[in-house]
Design brief:
Elements: H1 2-40
């Protein structure tokens, strides 16, 4: 029973880990990308 439970939740755990990793990368890289685009286009209104 425990083995079946682990097999059932394994894809969900992978999905949660991938989603958390993508969110973390977005939080890390969003300010850098925003600064880079602001440097390329400083005259935007």
């Amino acid at each position: 029973l425990l083995h079946e439970f682990n097999d059932q939740w394994h894809p969900i755990a992978i999905y949660i880990i991938i989603t958390a990793a993508i969110s973390l990368l977005a939080v890390i890289f969003a300010p850098a990308i925003a600064r880079r685009e602001a440097a390329y286009a400083p005259d935007l209104p």
